[in-house]
C-alpha cells in the first residue's frame, strides 16, 4: 500500500488512446510507459478505481489497472498466438471436465451443475468436449482445440489478456467463455468453479470469514476480468459474438 498522493482523477485523449491523469501528472506503467488504454469506457473504469482509493492506495484491489499494465508492459513478452494457445491449453485440465465417482452426492452435483454448461459450449461452438473420471482427464479432440483457437483469434491482444486472467481465476476455459458470452453470470461462474469446495463447506461447515473472503475476492477478480474483455472489444464485435447461434 502507498499513501494517496493525488486529489483529483481525470481522463484525457492523447495520440495513442485515452490517458489517466492524477492531478496534473499522467499515470505511468511499472515499466514507466505512458498509461494509455484503447477505449474511453475502459479509461473511465480505471479512473474510477484510482478515485475510489481512500487514504492509502490498495493496489491489490485495482484489477483493471493491473490488467492494463500487463497489456501495456507485456512482462512475459507473449504475442497473440502464444496468448491464445495458453488459453486453449486450459481445456486439458478444465475444472468442469474432471469428475469424481465418490462420494455419489458430489458426483451427482457435478453432473447436474456442470453438464448443462458443457452441453451449451458444445452446441455454441459445434465441438465435442465431454468429461471423464480418469485422473488423465477427457481426451479433447484436436478439432475442438482448433475451433477455440479460431474463436479466440477474433479477439484483440488486450481482450485476450483479460480472457486468460478470467480463465486462471476459474480454472476453466469453458466457464470463462460461457461468462464472457453472457450465458452465465459472474456469481454462477464462480460458484461452478468452486463446486467441490462449496460441497465440502455445506458438509463440514464454514471457516469463519476465510471462505467468504476468498469467495468475494474471486468474484471481484472474475468480474473485473470479464469487464476488461468487454471494454477492450469493439461493441460491434461483442454484439456479433452474442448474436451467433
What keywords describe this structure?
245 residues; ATP12-like; ATP12-like fold; 4-stranded antiparallel β-sheet; two-stranded antiparallel sheet; 11 helices; 6 strands; globular
Report what the structure shows.
The protein is built from eleven helices and six strands. The protein is α+β, with helices and mostly antiparallel strands. The strands form two sheets. Strands 2, 3, 4 and 5 form a four-stranded antiparallel sheet that branches. It has a two-stranded antiparallel sheet with strand order 1-6. Helix 4 packs across helix 7, helix 6 packs antiparallel against helix 10 and helix 7 (173-180) packs antiparallel against helix 8.
The average pLDDT score comes to 91
Terminal CA distance: 46 Å
Q: What is the CATH C level class of the largest domain, in words?
A: Mainly Alpha
Strand content: 5-15%
Low-confidence stretches: 235-243
Q: Cα-atom Rg, whole angstroms?
A: 20 Å
Number of helical stretches of at least 4 residues: 11
At the fold tier of CATH, the topology name of the largest domain is: ATP12-like fold
- Would you identify the CATH H-level superfamily of the largest domain? ATP12 ATPase
Shape category = globular
Q: How many strand elements?
A: 6
Structural class: alpha+beta
Q: Roughly what percent helix?
A: 55-70%
H and E string: EEEEEHEHHHHHHHHHH
Q: How many structurally independent domains?
A: 2
| Main sheet characteristics | 4 strands, antiparallel
At CATH's second level, what is the architecture of the largest domain? Orthogonal Bundle
Amino acid at each position: 500500500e502507498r499513501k494517496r498522493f493525488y486529489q483529483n482523477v481525470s481522463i484525457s485523449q492523447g495520440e495513442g488512446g485515452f490517458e489517466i491523469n492524477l492531478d496534473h501528472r499522467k499515470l505511468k506503467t511499472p515499466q514507466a510507459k505512458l498509461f494509455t488504454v484503447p477505449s474511453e469506457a475502459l479509461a473511465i473504469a480505471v479512473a474510477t478505481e484510482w478515485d475510489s482509493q481512500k487514504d492509502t492506495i490498495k493496489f491489490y484491489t485495482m484489477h483493471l489497472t493491473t490488467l492494463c499494465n500487463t497489456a501495456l508492459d507485456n512482462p512475459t513478452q507473449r504475442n497473440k498466438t502464444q496468448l491464445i494457445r495458453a488459453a486453449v491449453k486450459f481445456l486439458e485440465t478444465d475444472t468442469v471436465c474432471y469428475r469424481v465417482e465418490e462420494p455419489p452426492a458430489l458426483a451427482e452435483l457435478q453432473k447436474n451443475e456442470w453438464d448443462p454448461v458443457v452441453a451449451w459450449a458444445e452446441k455454441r461452438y459445434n465441438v465435442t468436449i465431454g468429461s471423464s473420471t480418469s485422473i488423465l482427464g477427457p481426451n479433447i479432440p484436436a478439432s475442438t482445440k482448433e475451433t477455440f483457437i479460431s474463436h479466440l483469434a477474433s479477439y484483440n491482444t488486450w481482450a485476450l489478456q483479460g480472457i486468460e486472467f478470467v480463465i486462471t481465476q476459474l480454472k476453466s476455459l469453458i466457464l470463462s467463455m460461457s461468462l464472457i458470452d453472457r450465458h452465465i453470470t459472474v456469481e454462477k461462474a464462480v460458484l461452478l468453479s468452486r463446486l467441490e469446495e462449496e460441497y465440502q463447506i455445506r458438509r463440514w461447515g464454514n471457516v469463519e470469514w476465510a471462505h467468504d473472503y476468498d469467495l468475494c475476492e474471486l468474484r471481484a477478480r472474475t468480474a473485473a476480468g470479464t469487464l476488461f474483455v468487454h471494454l477492450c472489444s469493439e461493441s460491434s464485435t461483442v454484439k456479433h459474438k452474442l448474436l451467433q447461434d
